[in-house]
Amino acid sequence: MLFVLAAIAAGRIWRFPVADEIATIVPLVPSAARSSTWALARFYLQGGDIHPPTTFVFFSTLYDLGVGEAALHLCSLAMTAAALALWQLLTLSLIGRHDEGAVRPITRFAAVLLCGLTPLAIGQGDAIRWYPQFALAVALFATLYLASNTRAARLASAIPLGVAASINLIAPLVVIPLAIYRYLLERAWRPSFDVAYWAIFLLFASPGLYSAVFIAKQQFDWLRHYQFGASPLAAGVTDILGFFGGNAVGVGHAWMLLPAVLLAACAMVSLIDRRERANPIHLCLLLLGAIVPAALSGFWESRSFLYLAPVQILVLTVFIDRISQRGFGFGAILITACAVLPALVAIGDLASGTHPFKRTAAIPYGEVIEFIEQNDRGGSLVVSFDPVASWELAAQGTASQRCVRDIPGHEPACFAERQHAEALFVIGAPSGRYQSTYWRAEYAPVFAARLAKIIGARTKVGELRVGHDEDAALKTWLTGVPLDEFILTVDLYR
Question: CA 104, CA 97: separation in Å to the nearest integer?
Fold first, then answer.
């Protein structure tokens, strides 16, 4: 309940989508290319995107049943909440096992606060993307593997692990730590069990493995350039800021996260058990440690680590329990307060958007739509460089009186007759100051030429600037990319 209330306070669920979610939502709408869920699955199975088909098939099925965007956000939020609940139960189970079944009230209270106010879960828990599904699959795997000593439960953990591999190709960051834990730390090589375990895993992972072959052939260059293109230092800093700040806390507020980062590091080091190599906490530490090679390879998509957010909470809660066990109750309370602080900052940054972690996630599209509605006399043309604005305007009830041209994209049927419309709205600009998921700065000259042709002899008569980024100057200094304090502009030509 605390998590859901915190997510609502941060403006989650009933909100405009972000550009990444548009990449999930748009394919759900039947088209000539993908007229059914099976056609959608075949498209992703054959490397049409960098993701396996499982997430899209899931959302497509819900969409076909009449589930709208807000309800899809709720479904994702429910999966994240379930993942948090499973990790919280696992946390208390591991502590109780160590302390002969007793769990201190202060530990339970810390677990409630830390799980309910997990920054990355608040920031990304309702995303119409693969992160919540992957987080739930990993939580089910860890619960079945660590919380039960029965052979059947451990064998069953191969099912969600295989499903995770069919959700996203980041699954090796879970599978490899499991292999290290099982065969090097537990030293639990049992041929009959292991053959059955990995056979079950491969069965449920087969869609992901099948699509991985095509992705490697068709999307390798794109992955290398855009997913792993950052330097190790930049990727590491971005991953740390995004992970502890919920993909919401901006650079200007990064200093507030330092206590939580230091506490996490201390907790991980202090919980290494040199006497019991098979301690279940070691699997959690290995899962968290997998972030390091990912960052060193240039991977900077911190939101992908949503599944690790409750793992870090588990480690921190066990650490707090050890502190309180030694009689330092005030220290445990202080540590809990420092760990909760990032969530409070994240909620503030998500709600206000003046210090955004990601600029395109802080655009107030309601103001954009209102500006166009107020200045539209009917029969206008909208040229948009922003995929979210294109999607929202096309879905408006007055869309039949307005033609929305998405750049890059295909010209709609209405474009030919509205190309010379009296009113022309241009959302965004083909410059390096604003980059979306769908186009990059190097394409700016081509898009500028297209836009100039569409504008023709019209004159600019109005402008709207939205989305205030108070960290723009700091980001410009850090990256060398000139950024305006306003994120998006809407120009009116007549």
Answer: 13
Residue 230, SS3? coil
Whole-angstrom Cα distance, residue 478 to residue 258? 19
19 contacts 388 by C-beta, under 8 angstroms: yes
Strand partners, 468: 486
Beta bridge partners of 486: 468
| Contact in structure between 254 and 356 (CB atoms under 8 Å) | no
Work out the burial of residue 360: count CB atoms within 10 Å of its CB; fewer than 13 is exposed, 13-18 middle, 19 or more buried: buried
pLDDT digits (tens, 9 = 90+) for 14-66: 999 998 898 888 888 876 455 677 788 888 888 778 889 899 899 999 998 99
For residues 320 and 332, the answer to whether their CB atoms sit within 8 Å is: yes
Lowest mean pLDDT among 77-91, 142-156, 257-271, 349-363: 349-363
184: which residues sit within 8 A by CB, 6+ positions away?
Answer: none
Q: Give CA separation, 413 vs 217, 384, 387, 417, in Å.
A: 34, 16, 18, 8
- Note the residue count of the chain: 494
Residue whose pair of structure tokens reads 């199975």 in the numeric block: 45
Give the tokens for residue 351.
């709600």
Mapping DSSP to helix (H, G, I), strand (E, B) and coil, where does residue 487 land?
strand
- Give the separation between CA 192 and CA 360, rounded to whole angstroms: 51
Q: What is the DSSP letter of 249?
A: B
**What distance in Å separates the CA atoms of residue 450 and residue 452, rounded to the nearest whole number?**
6
pTM of the predicted protein model: 0.92
Q: Helix, strand, or coil here: 148?
A: coil
